[in-house]
Design goal:
Length: about 240
Amino acid sequence: MYLKHMLPHQLREAVERGDPLLVPAGCIETHGPHMAIGHDTIIVEEICARVGKRLDAVISPPFDFGPTGYALGGPEDGTIDPDYDAFGSYVKSILRNFLEMGFGRVYVMIMHQGMEAPLALAFKKAAAELSFEMVLAEGKPRGWWADARMSREARLFGRIQVHPMILPAASPPAGGDHAGYNETSFLLATRPELVDQGRLDENAPWYCRQDEDRNSWTANAAHGQAMVEAVVDAWVELLQR
Ligand SMILES: [Zn+2]
């Protein structure tokens, strides 16, 4: 169920059931001449939607404007790069509200630049800071770590988890790249209307042709579907653990 669509009583019921909150996070970044520039957000939204059909979960509106570092072009190519401090503050304020809503399990899903890049780190830093700050906000005394009971509570710090969309259990068959064989296949399997392989020609950027056999031209929905199924299965397993 989508957070945006919920009535207040439905939100309370979801929290009481202990439903996880899935948070899609991505960016606007050029993905070659043949793919929608929102791919990295769109694909995590599509995976969240499929996971949400398999179990009770609430799906947050996406964080669309994550950091890109202009690694693959600028605004004229379809890439946006926000102020990182502003983005980090925004992320932290919204995550705090998710916890205050009462969600006990918040899962941020990322398919952009890896888990040590600015996008993932913004969420991980915010989650870590909130873990400590909210202990004090609950009125616990300074020195609370020494209390064995509190240390147990401290283990509940993992209320916000940040994961790559492709969990280890899904790889292979799922893999990453930039607008190449894997990402083009992901989009062909989920939102084919947002791909136009006819736009690929000899001027296509280097990342479209990283492999002679597996590239943007040979990407296909069947491979995409196999990856999607593996990714969704891995997420369902993680959430049911
Ligand atoms: Zn991408």
